[in-house]
Amino acid sequence: MATVEKQVMVVGVDDSDHSSYALEWTLDHFFIPYASNPNFKLVLVHAKPSATSTVGLAGPGAAEVLPIVDSDLRRIAARVIEKAKEICISKSVNDVVVEVVEGDARNVLCEAVEKHHAAILVVGSHGYGAIKRAVLGSVSDYCAHHAHCSVMIVKRPKHKH
User: Fold this and answer.
1) What average pLDDT does the segment 105-128 reach?
2) Residue (of 81, 76, 83) closest to 44 by Cα position
3) Do residues 13 and 84 touch, judged by C-beta distance below 8 A?
4) Residue 149 to residues 32, 118, 132, Cα–Cα distance (Å)
5) What pTM value is reported for the model?
6) CA 34 to CA 96: how far, in whole Å?
7) Residue 120: which CATH number?
8) What parts of the sequence cross the membrane (predicted)?
9) Where are the beta strands (DSSP E) in 49-112?
10) How far apart are CA 85 and CA 96, in angstroms?
11) 22, 154 Cβ separation under 8 angstroms
């Protein structure tokens, strides 16, 4: 009997609380209820910025600064992945593929969708207003318009005072 290949769900993870919430929400709604046989293969993707894009400078001193910045970015990426794995383990979701890819999160996530032939891309929402989104650029906005799959933007509910 042939086995049916599971659809892939890519979840973008970074060092924000919004990302952790989106991962937990996804696990709670798509994996835990189907613990014995989830409908999706889970792929977690962290986009690690390059040192040069982070520093954004060239000239005297750049050569000394870049290795330090790169080391910090690697440490942050390791921490992000470790936290994401801990969240998965705490929810008894152990069959997870984890990737760290250097580059801008918008491009990295859209390329991960293509690479894995993902059916769904999940990203957290930072809840920026229109001005901040315009200045900083919204990863979720970009992915919603450019990813070749359904994009689920998970927003943390607002707490009423």
Assistant:
1) 93
2) 81
3) yes
4) 23, 7, 26
5) 0.88
6) 15
7) 3.40.50.620
8) none
9) 96-102
10) 8
11) yes
Q: Number of folded domains in the chain? A: 1
pLDDT at position 145 is 93
Flag whether 74 is in a domain.
yes
Helices then strands (H, E): number in the chain? Answer: 6, 5
User: How confident is the model at residue 44, as a pLDDT?
Assistant: 98
- For residue range 62-95, what is the model confidence (pLDDT) as tens digits? 778 888 889 999 999 999 999 999 999 999 999 9
Q: Is residue 161 part of a domain?
A: no
Q: Which two tokens stand for residue 98?
A: 């984890």
| Residue at token pair 């835990």 | 32
Quick check: is 120 in a domain? Answer: yes
The boundaries of the domain holding residue 89 are 7-154
In angstroms, the CA 101 to CA 104 distance is: 9
pLDDT in tens, 13-61: 999 999 999 999 999 999 998 888 899 999 999 999 888 777 666 666 6
Residue 77 three-state SS: helix
Asked whether the predicted pLDDT for residue 1 surpasses 60, the reply is: no
